[in-house]
Description:
Helix content is 83%, strand content 0%. It has 425 residues and is mainly α. It has one domain (2-417). The radius of gyration is 21 Å and the shape is globular.
Amino acid sequence: MQFVDTVMAGHVSSKDLAGLAIATAIYHPVFLLMLGILIALGSIIAQLFGARKPAEIVTNVIQGLWLSQVLALVSILILSNSEPILHFMGYEAKVIQVAGDYLKALCWGMPAVYAYIVLRMFNEGLSITRPNMYFSLIGLAINILGNYTLMFGHFGFPALGAVGAGWTTSMVHWVMFSVMLAFCLKGSLFKSYRKFLYFSGPVWLHLREILRIGLPNGFSFAAEVGMFAMVSLLMGTFGVSAIAGHQIAINVASLTFMIPMGLSIAITIRVGQAKGRDNCIEARYIGYAGILLCIIVMAVSASIFVIVPEMIVGLYTKDLQVQTLAIQLLYMAAIFQLSDGMQVGALGALRGLKDTKIPLVANIAAYWGLGLPLAYLVGIHFNVGPTGMWVGLITGLSTAAVFHSWRFRILTNRLLILPSSRKFT
């Protein structure tokens, strides 16, 4: 959906594309922080499923729904008050207006998308993954039609440009949540779980467990995407064309990243289920197989970036200056594809073991201690430009990939030696 928004915004104007780029640079760290917290439910439910504790699974889902609405409120407060940051960064007034209005439109969908994530984790913790795929495809179809209507002003609606994409996204979130909720309440797959369904207020005991795993995981996500967001914001110092070219390359890389991201969640579930059964050999095998699969997938996408960059960039814009920079950055993106796949796969394997605190420290060190300073130093201080800033992205991702894989090896070695151990510190 973000890919569609970006492509269609590129055909409105460069300023709409730049406004969307700045808005997503602010939105993604906030959203992925909350997503990371809620994804912790996946590992919790997977381990409970492996241990055959259906009543506790339902209890955690209910508590996750309470937590999702608190996180939605926090997100709305942040996103709806972000314009002062953009003014401080010195962007053009038109770009700030587009970005601010887009973020305010997105806020209306926050309660729905976070509740949807909880129900998605419930499904995926039980190894039920197809419904999310189907509902996402429905959402994508609605997103394309809604963007066509609201961005370009068809069927009697005003042309809202990139802001129309924000309104469409919020609508899609509510549709997807409604369909997923109906599926969980009526689907035969959940008949044995519905008998444990009851109304319950927030219970700190369960919320604390979700937050214990989820907060470090969420901040790990935010640390990575925060580095990308800061680079996007700093890219504004090179002008609107640089922002647009960077946004195209980041959007393409983000699209291909969704495949190993999905595999990472699958790795979390499968490792968690094996750990719930106390089968540590299987957990280790699944983790390594998953990491390797992520690397293979990203090797394919890297090859595509190198072979047909002009064709990819041509989908977004006809502006020759923007195209030239975007193609250069796609070559850079091809380099970090393997590292990106490796790090997200290993992070998923660690999450399946409920290990999130040490990976958070590693991500902060890799992305903010090394990657971002290097991006600023090479790109701005030494005046290499946008491609120089991407050197920092590559370095940060590669460092995180090596550490997370090494950490998974240490923990699984420890489990095989002491299979009764349940602490990973």
